[in-house]
Amino acid sequence: MEVPLLEVLLYTDGSVTRILERFFEEVTIDPLETRKLKVEGREARLLGVPDGDTVYVRRVVIKVDGRPAILATSLARPDNLPGRLRRLVLQSRKPLGKMIEELRLETRREILRVEEARPSPEDEEILDVSVPKIPWREYLVYHRRTPMLLIRERFNPEVLGREG
């Protein structure tokens, strides 16, 4: 049985970047922004912080062979990021999964949602897609049994397969 790459990426609890490196010649990370954000409601509850708490937001585009494949938005809870990871999240072009591996952090990932949605105008522009729906997922990364990262990834089916 052959499983499409996009299905593997949507349901893995491992490193998406490492999987992409097995299928493509070049995988690069293009940072879009890193900033602080006050979270409320569902995001605060998922991260285990009070409403109004400040987290780090990191948005990147993961490109494969020069084509935008994934738009990833990470919300990082600063008080549960080990010091070196905190600095890297704010400054590095490396994928978060590789940073976690390099620092040998014990983590667990919990996939919360895997869905399809109409691409927003931003998705269309950044991912360069023109399909009726794009797959996306949301998951938590736990460290020390506490949420450390809330990550949302929006996938380009024109690059990764199973077009909208």
Which labels suit this protein?
164 residues; alpha+beta; Chorismate lyase; six-stranded antiparallel beta sheet; Chorismate_lyase_/UTRA_dom_sf; lyase activity
Would you mind describing this structure in some detail?
- With 164 residues, the protein is of the alpha+beta class.
- The chain has a single domain (5-160), classed as Chorismate lyase.
- It has helices at 5-11, 16-23, 41-47, 83-91, 96-102, 121-127, 157-160, and strands at residues 27-39, 53-64, 67-76, 107-117, 134-143, 146-155.
- Strands 1-2-3-6-5-4 form a six-stranded antiparallel β-sheet.
- It is globular.
- The protein starts with a helix and ends with a helix.
Radius of gyration: 15 Å
Oligomer: single chain
Low-confidence stretches: none
- Distance separating the two termini: 22 Å
Strand content: 35-45%
GO molecular function: lyase activity
Protein name: Chorismate lyase
InterPro entries: Chorismate_lyase_/UTRA_dom_sf (IPR028978), Rv2949c-like (IPR002800)
Keywords: Lyase
Structure at a glance:
With 164 residues, this protein is α+β, with helices and mostly antiparallel strands.
Topology:
Blueprint: H1 5-11, H2 16-23, E1 27-39, H3 41-47, E2 53-64, E3 67-76, H4 83-91, H5 96-102, E4 107-117, H6 121-127, E5 134-143, E6 146-155, H7 157-160
GO molecular function, one term: lyase activity
Protein name: Chorismate lyase
Organism: Methanopyrus kandleri
